[in-house]
Every structure is written in structure tokens, then in C-alpha cells.
């Protein structure tokens, strides 16, 4: 849990360094640090500690297909969180996605990271690869994505779909070709829980 959140925090710092100087961008989301504490005299010898967030706790990003929070689209913090996800996705060439963004205002905690099946630069996340696919399909760019010069994922996704469908249409004697059976989607991994 500490490794995931603090890794996401490092990406957020780089994002902030690029976004804050842009005219009109304003405040940038911050992922708060989380620390592992060893308590040898306790029944549960390890716990995590982080800053207490006071105020309305909001989930800005989608964790799975059943969970959508409209506040993420309409609020400034929500739009900037979506832009952060898009920025990380683009910076890692679609190999890593910070997800499950939630918190109070611009202060975020308890985030998740999804990576491709083999991980990204030796790092494996704690969320299913399907989160990346879902983000690519559902993300709607906003003014902050445009300010950072991020490429539209919808256009890229649609181009990939058109190219695939064109190849299928142009196959010779398609009646003799066997249909490809899609691999079963991987189930999301359980999140690591800890005492807070």
C-alpha cells in the first residue's frame, strides 16, 4: 500500500511541475504520503499512517465498470484528476495508470495503480489491466488535457478499431478463416488492506 501510493505520489510531483507553470491551470492534485509504522508490542505489528483529510471525501476516478461518480466530471478537482490519469497514461505509453483517485479537494489518498500484464519498468500495480482498457475507452478529454497538449484517446482508440475492422474486411476468402476467440478478461486483484 505504501509503495503504490508513494509511487503514484512521485508521478503526481512530475505532473505538478509540468502543469503548475501553465497560465490558467491553477492548483494541481497532490497525493499525500503514506508511512509504514512498526509497532512490535502490538498484536498487529505494522500499520500505515497518513495525514487526516478533513472535509467532503469524493471518489474522482472509476475503479470498475459499475462505479461512476459524476462529481469527477463536473468539479475542477475531478477534471484535473482525469487529466493526471491521462498524463500518466501518455507518459508511460499506455503501460501504467494511476486509478481509484479519491480524497478531499486536491488532496488524494488510497490510490491504485494498474500496469500491463508484465508490469512497467519492473513495477507491478495492484489493479487489473482492465482498468487501463476501461480508461482508454471511457476517458473524455477536458480543458486541462488540452492545456497540457495531451492526445485524445478516443481518436487513437477509434483509429485502432477502424484499422482492425479494415483488416478483417480485406481478408481473402474469410469463410475459411476460423474466428478468434477472445481471451477471458482478467479479474481485478484484491486490494491490499491495512490498519489505518
UniProtKB/TrEMBL annotation:
Pfam families recorded: Alpha_kinase
Residues annotated as domain Alpha-type protein kinase: 1-153
GO molecular function, one term: ATP binding
Subcellular localization: Basolateral cell membrane
Keywords: Cell membrane, Disulfide bond, Immunoglobulin domain, Kinase, Membrane, Repeat, Serine/threonine-protein kinase, Transferase
Reaction(s) catalysed (UniProt annotation): L-threonyl-[protein] + ATP = O-phospho-L-threonyl-[protein] + ADP + H(+); L-seryl-[protein] + ATP = O-phospho-L-seryl-[protein] + ADP + H(+)
Superkingdom per UniProt: Eukaryota
GO cellular component: basolateral plasma membrane
UniProt signal peptide: none
Gene3D superfamilies cross-referenced by the UniProt entry: MHCK/EF2 kinase (3.20.200.10)
InterPro entries recorded: a-kinase_dom, Kinase-like_dom_sf
EC number(s) on file: 2.7.11.1
Main localization (coarse): membrane
Function of the molecule: Protein kinase that recognizes phosphorylation sites in which the surrounding peptides have an alpha-helical conformation. Regulates cardiac development and cardiomyocyte differentiation by negatively regulating Wnt/beta-catenin signaling.
Sequence similarity: Belongs to the protein kinase superfamily. Alpha-type protein kinase family. ALPK subfamily.
Protein name as it appears in the record: Alpha-protein kinase 2
Native source organism of the sequence: Alca torda (Razorbill)
